[in-house]
């Protein structure tokens, strides 16, 4: 019984560390779903610690599996007790926790699917070439594809924006826009609403 309690605690600890490891990328999606886009970059400070948290998750879940699978000393047979473990103490439950933790750790790689594709809905607009401007912004706090999608989604809401391409690896966002319909200040304001900071 003590072994199952230890492996359960380890499983929940592993799940928690997986959640914390991906919190920097989960927050922008939660912000989009809740409509509070300003909190998107709240946990971006966790990103440098993500590899450590991922390693901790793997070690903890590995230890939980070791505890679960190592042979138990034979107890005296007693017909008076039901030896079947409860679901929460079973290998199936630990397997589900492990799958969910893996899904959480991989979240930054698929988080972009939660954002609407603004470019697909965009209608063809004819713009005078003399009104087209292009600006590149350096942005602090982007840590994954979800962060890129969050910024692109917010800026694409502005009328007159012709295209946005944010890249978390370079910490830059490239914006092409019709300056007769939208100003650079409005674009800066839209990026600011996401919670990410533009570096001057």
From TrEMBL:
Source organism, top-level taxon: Bacteria
Transmembrane segments: 48-66, 93-110
UniProt membrane topology term: Multi-pass membrane protein
Subcellular location: Cell inner membrane
InterPro entries: Heavy-metal-associated_CS, HMA_dom, HMA_dom_sf, MerP/CopZ, Transprt_MerT
Pfam families assigned: HMA, MerT
Residues annotated as domain HMA: 133-199
Annotated keywords: Cell inner membrane, Cell membrane, Membrane, Mercuric resistance, Mercury, Metal-binding, Transmembrane, Transmembrane helix, Transport
Tagged with keyword Phosphoprotein: no
Function: Involved in mercury resistance. Probably transfers a mercuric ion from the periplasmic Hg(2+)-binding protein MerP to the cytoplasmic mercuric reductase MerA.
Family: Belongs to the MerT family.
Protein name (record): Mercuric transport protein MerT
């Amino acid at each position: 019984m003590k072994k199952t309690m230890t492996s359960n605690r380890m499983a929940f600890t592993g799940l928690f560390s997986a959640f914390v490891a991906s919190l920097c990328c989960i927050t922008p999606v939660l912000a989009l779903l809740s409509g509070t886009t300003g909190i998107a970059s709240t946990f971006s400070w966790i990103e440098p610690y993500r590899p450590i948290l991922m390693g901790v998750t793997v070690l903890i879940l590995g230890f939980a599996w070791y505890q679960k699978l190592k042979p138990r000393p034979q107890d005296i047979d007693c017909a008076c007790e039901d030896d079947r473990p409860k679901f929460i103490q079973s290998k199936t439950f630990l397997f589900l926790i492990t799958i969910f933790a893996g899904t959480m750790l991989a979240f930054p790689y698929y988080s972009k699917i939660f954002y609407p594709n603004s470019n697909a809905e965009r209608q063809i607009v004819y713009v005078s070439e003399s009104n087209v401007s292009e600006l590149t912004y350096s942005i602090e706090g982007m840590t994954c594809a979800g962060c890129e999608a969050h910024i692109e989604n917010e800026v694409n809401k502005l009328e007159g924006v012709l295209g946005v391409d944010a890249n978390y690896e370079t910490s830059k966002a490239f914006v092409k826009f019709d300056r007769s319909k939208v100003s650079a200040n409005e674009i800066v304001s839209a990026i600011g609403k996401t919670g990410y900071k533009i570096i001057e």
